[in-house]
């Protein structure tokens, strides 16, 4: 049996960027490296948790010791999360889920031919997985802590915080980890700077440093929330 403050807890972590298929060889993707998500999974493992890691596209190795589930698209990620959520004490949605996917996936490679018009890719919205997981948790009345992420541009000034607080309310999760993105500020880098917001209205908490240090701070906060739930 594992030991540590999260011993006996099951944590479901999603990470990486989804890839939305256009045809058998092409996709729409994003710049998420999966580093922060992998660091969160390692921090949870180090704290003694049992970790299921649902990985979309990663630029890094998946965490050793986690139960690994590989997915590609947002729809696959959604199915993987919905299937495993009932067993989790904590869900961390660190994946960069594409907001849109091509409306249709071509069965064969789209050809470039001089005699045809340039192709047009119509996009449709992907489901909001985080919001759905919260709804399902609420409907089932499960004691489960759900952590969302928000990547916003701009500095963490008052307006960004207000925006994040709004998102926290809208999504209905307990914790929201706000990080600032912008040209090469976060994606693929080893450093991160985040603000952890809680729905209980407590003071936002700032954490910065390596993605491992940020992950440790988020996991410490999760541990505190779980302990508070028990009392
Ligand atoms: O709405 P926004 O994309 O900013 O929210 C970010 C949070 O929501 C992240 O935790 C991300 O994993 C999650 N998300 C999701 N499904 C989507 C889009 C985002 O679960 N379709």
TrEMBL record:
Functional pathway: Cofactor biosynthesis; coenzyme A biosynthesis; CoA from (R)-pantothenate: step 2/5; Cofactor biosynthesis; coenzyme A biosynthesis; CoA from (R)-pantothenate: step 3/5
Details of cofactor binding: Binds 1 FMN per subunit.
UniProt keyword terms in alphabetical order: Decarboxylase, Flavoprotein, FMN, Ligase, Lyase, Magnesium, Metal-binding, Multifunctional enzyme
Family: In the N-terminal section; belongs to the HFCD (homo-oligomeric flavin containing Cys decarboxylase) superfamily. In the C-terminal section; belongs to the PPC synthetase family.
Organism: Sinomonas flava
Binding site for CTP: 99, 109, 127-130, 149, 167, 171
EC annotation from Swiss-Prot or TrEMBL: 4.1.1.36, 6.3.2.5
UniProt GO MF annotations: ligase activity
Domain DNA/pantothenate metabolism flavoprotein C-terminal positions: 6-223
Name of the featured protein: Coenzyme A biosynthesis bifunctional protein CoaBC
Domain of life where this protein originates: Bacteria
Role noted for this protein: Catalyzes two steps in the biosynthesis of coenzyme A. In the first step cysteine is conjugated to 4'-phosphopantothenate to form 4-phosphopantothenoylcysteine, in the latter compound is decarboxylated to form 4'-phosphopantotheine. Catalyzes two sequential steps in the biosynthesis of coenzyme A. In the first step cysteine is conjugated to 4'-phosphopantothenate to form 4-phosphopantothenoylcysteine. In the second step the latter compound is decarboxylated to form 4'-phosphopantotheine.
Cofactor list: FMN; Mg(2+)
Catalytic reaction list: N-[(R)-4-phosphopantothenoyl]-L-cysteine + H(+) = (R)-4'-phosphopantetheine + CO2; (R)-4'-phosphopantothenate + L-cysteine + CTP = N-[(R)-4-phosphopantothenoyl]-L-cysteine + CMP + diphosphate + H(+)
Keyword Lyase tagged: yes
Region of interest (Phosphopantothenate--cysteine ligase), residue spans: 11-231
